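Technical annex, item 7. During the second reporting period the consortium partners agreed on a shared format for inverse folding records so that results from different sites could be compared directly. Each record opens with the tokenized structure and is followed by the designed sequence. A conforming record, contributed by the partner at site C, is shown below for reference.
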């Protein structure tokens, strides 16, 4: 069983545009999609479609559209009652797959709410294989709250994954190896934040077939106590590094529609492969297959297993 935690959930509204986005002009919407969002919520949705038991923990009033949407989708969830509203995030999606995101700030979480969220996660983690801490932090908790949660969850025996960015990621990095999770899932920019490298250069090098800079950066994080680093590199693919070695993956051919939630689906793919006992290379293969499938779907749609193509992803050990 996999528990996900979304500290800053949202209703995700995606507008598909007929033409390239015209700033300052009139843009016409071809289709509109609303759905429950936030990185951990997306992971739980993908796991549910794959038949993997998952519980999505999130701060939300019990009577809210995001809770109703999760219930309708059949996703097991634990809304922690708060008085603040759940934000709405807007994504503008162009025909070539270019996406523009407009995210609301999250609503503040008070100290009592933080305690209830922590205790709920610890209680659920006792029966879980993995706990995934996902996304940005709203106002209220300190930047190193994810590190605090890693420390609180460690005695439960569950493995811990973290997928975040900016200040929460940098604060977690500052507390390695003491608060090291079992898995970090950065994109190129976030891996750069962790290691002091240029994330744009990492992704550009990978796009030209040079994965060595990303592998070096991922290995540097492994050397600081993280068991697995899954670095997603957009259309170039992904890298997985651990103490056992490093692997690079290139994705199957797709027609991109929306990149929203692709990283979340990649994390779901890795976790579902890991809990069934797959080798690291096959966990990477499944991660890339899921991320690619999400990119080929509209809005915040997460893929079903039959919409993924693990055989289309090429995975090889990195030598060097």
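Designed sequence (site C submission):
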């Amino acid at each position: 069983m996999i528990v996900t935690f979304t500290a800053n959930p949202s209703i995700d509204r995606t507008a598909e545009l007929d033409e390239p986005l015209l700033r300052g002009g009139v843009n016409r919407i071809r289709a509109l999609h609303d759905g429950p969002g936030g990185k951990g919520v997306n992971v739980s949705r993908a796991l549910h479609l794959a038949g993997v038991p998952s519980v999505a923990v999130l701060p939300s009033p019990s009577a809210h559209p995001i809770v109703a949407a999760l219930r309708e989708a059949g996703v097991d969830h634990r809304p922690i009652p708060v008085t603040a509203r759940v934000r709405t995030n807007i994504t503008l999606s162009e025909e070539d797959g270019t996406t523009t995101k407009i995210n609301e700030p999250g609503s503040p979480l008070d100290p009592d709410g933080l305690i209830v969220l922590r205790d709920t996660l610890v209680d659920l983690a006792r029966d879980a294989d993995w706990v995934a801490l996902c996304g940005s932090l709203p106002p209220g908790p300190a930047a190193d709250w994810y590190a605090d949660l890693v420390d609180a969850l460690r005695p439960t025996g569950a493995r811990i994954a973290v997928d975040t960015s900016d200040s929460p990621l940098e604060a977690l990095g500052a507390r390695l190896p003491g608060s090291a999770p079992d898995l970090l899932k950065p994109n190129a920019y976030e891996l750069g934040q962790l290691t002091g490298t240029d994330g744009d250069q990492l992704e550009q090098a990978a796009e030209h077939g040079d994965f060595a800079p990303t592998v070096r950066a991922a290995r540097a994080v492994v050397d600081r106590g993280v068991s697995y680093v899954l670095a997603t590199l957009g259309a170039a693919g992904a890298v997985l590094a651990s103490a056992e070695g490093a692997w690079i993956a290139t994705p199957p051919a797709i027609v991109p529609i929306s990149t929203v939630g692709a990283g979340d689906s990649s994390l779901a793919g890795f976790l579902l492969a890991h809990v069934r006992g797959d080798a690291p290379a096959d966990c990477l293969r499944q991660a890339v297959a899921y991320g690619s499938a999400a990119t080929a779907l509209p809005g915040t749609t997460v893929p079903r297993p039959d919409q993924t193509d693990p055989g289309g992803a090429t995975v090889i050990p990195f030598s060097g």
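The mean pLDDT is 93. The first helix runs from residue 39 to 49. All partners now use this format for quarterly exchanges.
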